[in-house]
Amino acid sequence: MSMSSHATPSGAPVSPKKALSIGFLLLENFTLISLASAIEPLRMANQLAGSELYRWYTLTLDGEPVSASDGLRVTPDVSIRTPLSLDMVIVCGGVAPHRSVQREHVTWLQGQARLSRRLGAICTGSWALAKSGLLDDYEVSTHWECMAAMREAFPRVGLTTRLFSIDRDRATCSGGTAPLDMMLTLIRCDHGRELAAGISEMFICERVRSDQDQQRIPLRHVLGTNQPKLLEIVALMESNLEEPIGLDELASYVGVSRRQLERLFQKNLHCSPSRYYLKLRLTRARQLLKQTAMSIIEVASACGFVSTPHFSKCYREFFGIPPRDERIGHLNPPVRLEQREAEALFRQAAFQAVPEEPVSSAIVALDQARGEPTYASVAVRP
Length: 382
Hints:
single chain; 2 domains; seven-stranded mixed beta sheet; globular
């Protein structure tokens, strides 16, 4: 059933029920692409629904402009001292978050938590929440470049390599365009699959990644530069997935013995070279199943498996489901119970009346979208 919209005295449409209000706290040197990837899905949700489902504000400590990591100066809507009826606060981090987070950030975020506001972070913004003691015993995603430092500084935070994590009243995300996937997941659970699919089409997004998708962490970042032979071997493996190279041949390519090869992998990667090679091939297979229309036989062949039954057996043992179910699940991804509960918390934030709340740019954007052919083109579930 379509959701009707009304108009303010200025002619801007508003939703029949109060929009979910999100504040984006900008740290110095935040990444602009992550901020845009988080806000744009909200804008498009409003446009396609033809009503204000979401509103957003950008905040800084003092209301003064801050620099993004690319040097662009961004003027926020308000300072953190401005009273806002927020349902969620998302911290936007970027370069060197340990230098950007100040005592005032910590105090304000702790205050938001006491008000039962939902909390989130994109890119390295999770550093601010962790420093505020607000991520202890939560499952957390952050940009892979920040992961080692966070693990050292905040041992009680449950860091994961996943693109994003929704755990109870926390939603954290890695960097780049991953916030787009997290916000689409939340929008889908808030307002239905059709709206999320419509947003994806508008942004030419062929596949919405789930919270089970992993960040691709460069091995060089994990190992440093102290293991050049191991890095060379892994590079050879990655370049030869369709026709795997034997371990003896790999060892001879880099001038080590088979025994030395085994020791290198066990010491640094905590598995055998054959197991690591298999992991690379199966991970590639998973990408092909999710992102292409290749048949399972073709995927098996492209990843170096001589028979489909052997491929299916290895795939099931590694990922816990057979390739066929992986593809079916991609076409109709389930929402896990704990994810539903977490996203329900996202929607159930308490609203508090505050005087003279600033106008959100969401209303301006929605008003400008009234002439677009896609305006109010998606029926949003109540």
